[in-house]
Amino acid sequence: MHELSIAQSVVEAVCERADGRRVRSVRMVVGALCAVVPDSMLFCFELAATGTAAEGARLDLETPAGVGHCRQCGADLALTDPILLCPCGSSDVEVRSGRELTIVSMEVS
């Protein structure tokens, strides 16, 4: 479960930036192609935050869909999983979005 290591890194980063203040919420963008299960990420964040300045903080996840462009036929397509294949059969697909894994903001008190 790689969500746990991601959650631990997020908690470490926000606690460091909080500089001793209590973290109330964290907002992240987690693209659909990152292979991160949102429910698992929420659960792991709660575990990783235990005993830190982020304990009890709310994690808000935005999960944008993947978007790709086929270099073979020129089609733009929705990407729902990491297997990049155009309906035309080509695997020459450029990923334009969906791989984001970013802490966007945090609220502290």
TrEMBL record:
This is Hydrogenase maturation factor HypA. Keywords: Metal-binding, Nickel, Zinc. Signal peptide: none annotated. It comes from Rhodococcus zopfii. The keyword Zinc applies. It comes from the Bacteria. Gene3D superfamilies: 3.30.2320.80. Belongs to the HypA/HybF family. Ni(2+) binds at residue 2. Involved in the maturation of [NiFe] hydrogenases. Required for nickel insertion into the metal center of the hydrogenase. Pfam families: HypA. InterPro entries: Hydgase_Ni_incorp_HypA/HybF_CS (IPR020538), HypA/HybF (IPR000688). Zn(2+) binds at residues 70, 73, 86, 88.
